[in-house]
Structures are given as structure tokens and as C-alpha cells.
Amino acid sequence: MKNTKIILVIIAVIIVSAVVFFFQNNKPENTTTVPIRIGYQTAWIPQAQLAQILKHTDILEKNGLSGDFKGFNYGGPLNEAALAGEVDVLFVADFPAINLLSKSEKFSIVARLSDFRNGIIVPLESPIKSISDLKGKTLSIPFGSSPHVHALSFIKENELDLKDFNIKNLDITEQINILQKGSPKTWESVDAFATWDPAMAAFEENGKVRILKLFNPVGAIVMSNDFIAQNPVAAKKFLESFIESYFYYAKNQGKADGWFVEESKFSYPQSVIDKSVSLEKNLKADDIKEISIFLNEEQITRLEDLMNEAVNNGLLKQTYDIRSRINQKILGEIRNDKLNFDLDQINTK
């Protein structure tokens, strides 16, 4: 009888242990996710591909986030949405980031977005050979964009007066429509555009564009301070997701480029996309440990210089301490080599 009781106790212990083991290893995943509203630009790469990766894969979900994506033509309207409280994080170029922070203390730059190209372009066969040749002619720019400041600064660097130029506001989609209809000789009533890739690279490749001046700005990830304060873990998880999306892009460029083309409705050849993303070193990474989205000292100094130029050109009322508005502490807590990221486990939607 005693032996029987011992056997029954042993069996009971085994059963309980098995049940506990089963539930520990088969418990449902925590389905609670933190919503995050992501503002991005549909016609600017490579950030558009990174946004598409976050949208079309479960990278965010695996990090406990639920993305609400809001696409914009360029940085100006995106900034307006941020000021209206419609986004928690936004992908913008240098001047839109500077401009937004000058208007509201509710945002901080939390990481580098990308390195990219923008510039001033003219028709391939235009007689305009230098910026001084544009005097008295029409230069169209998306106001509030990165090339807006860079173009005005370039004019002043050449000791020219802005009053001698007919500078008009025209967003990127309108630019593309004019370029598509135009010829290597003329673009309707526009003599030059300040613009960015991939439009710049596309029309350069098809023989309609000559680059008068090339600029190499830096993009920024800007995040709501309220979101950071209320969701510190989610803020960190978003940056981890972004790092992971960069590595995903490095290893799945064709797929990400396809998602970009599908949403933007612009069918760019691969050679154009490759040229447009050529400055971004992360896309050459063979390991996630090689991905870096830190703003370095040289890039921060460039932001300071650009802010000063914006004030000198009347695009900002005054300077401010931009260094105090760059918060890379969250990013500094992330160790890429500790990220539990497996490309083979990423699902697409």
C-alpha cells in the first residue's frame, strides 16, 4: 500500500510537471501592442522603402508595436501634421527637422534617418551653365524642404541676390509631372528645379536633366517627446525596429523597392533607385551589427550650419540650441548584436 501511494505521488508530480511545462512553452504571445503613428514621405528614398518594410512586414509587431502609417508628398506637409499632433514619429530631411523643432518643443531628433542626394537641376540642353545664369529666371522649389535651404544658401555663396531670382513653390509631384511632359530643351515656364532623388536621378538617366549643383544632406528621425515619456519602452522598440528594417532592406532590396514603386506609382528602373540610395552605407551591410543610425559630430555640425543659413535666408526667425534637441540616449541603449533578429522569421503582409 505504501509503495502504491509513493507511485501515485510520483505519477502526480510527473503529470503536474508536464502540464506546467506544456503551458510555459505553449502560452499565447502577448497580443497587446502599442500603437505608433508614423509619418513618412512616399516619393523620397531610401526612407520610403524603410517605411514600406515596416508596413509590409511584421517587424513592428514582433517588437510590440502597431503602426499607423501616414504618407506625405514631402516634409512641409508632414511637419504640419506633426504640429497638429497627428504623428508620433516622422521621417524628414535636415531642414524640415530643424524647422519643426524651431516651432515646437514637443519633438526631438532621436536618430539619423539616411544619407541622400538633392540638388538644382536644369534641362539637359539648357544654356544655363552656372547659378548666375539663373538670374531673372524661374527656380521652383518645394518650400520648407531640404533643397529649399540648400539652394538659397548656394545662391548667396556665389554672392548673388535672392531678389534677382524668381523663386516659386512647387511640390515634388508637380515637379515630376512637368518633367515628364518636358523635353531636354525646356520645361514649360520653369527654368530650374531644386529637387531630390529619385526624380533627379530618373530624369538625369533618361536625358532630360543636367545637375547644376549636387547637395548631400542628412535625414533625421524625429519623435514626439510625449510619446517618449509615455512609452519609453515602445520608443526604444521603434528604433530597434528601424535598425532591423534597414538590415531587411540591405538583404531584400528588390522586394522593398517593389513596395515603394507600388505605392508611389512611379515606375523607376533599378539603376535609378540604385543611384538614389548610393550614399547610404547601411545598404551594404552584411550583418545587423554593421547598421548605424547615429548622428555623428560632423552631421550635427552640419545641422547647426544649415540652421544658421536658414536664419540668414529668412526661412527661420532665429537660431536655437539644436544640440539640446537631439536625444540619442534611447539609441545608445540599443546593442545591435543583442537584437533577437532573424531574417528567416520575418513575415510579409
From TrEMBL:
UniProt entry keywords in alphabetical sequence: Membrane, Transmembrane, Transmembrane helix
Keyword Membrane: yes
Membrane-spanning intervals of the chain: 6-23
Keyword Membrane on entry: yes
SUPFAM superfamilies in the cross-refs: Periplasmic binding protein-like II
Top-level taxon in the UniProt lineage: Bacteria
Pfam families tied to this protein: Phosphonate-bd
Designated name of the protein: Uncharacterized protein
Organism per entry: Candidatus Campbellbacteria bacterium CG22_combo_CG10-13_8_21_14_all_43_18
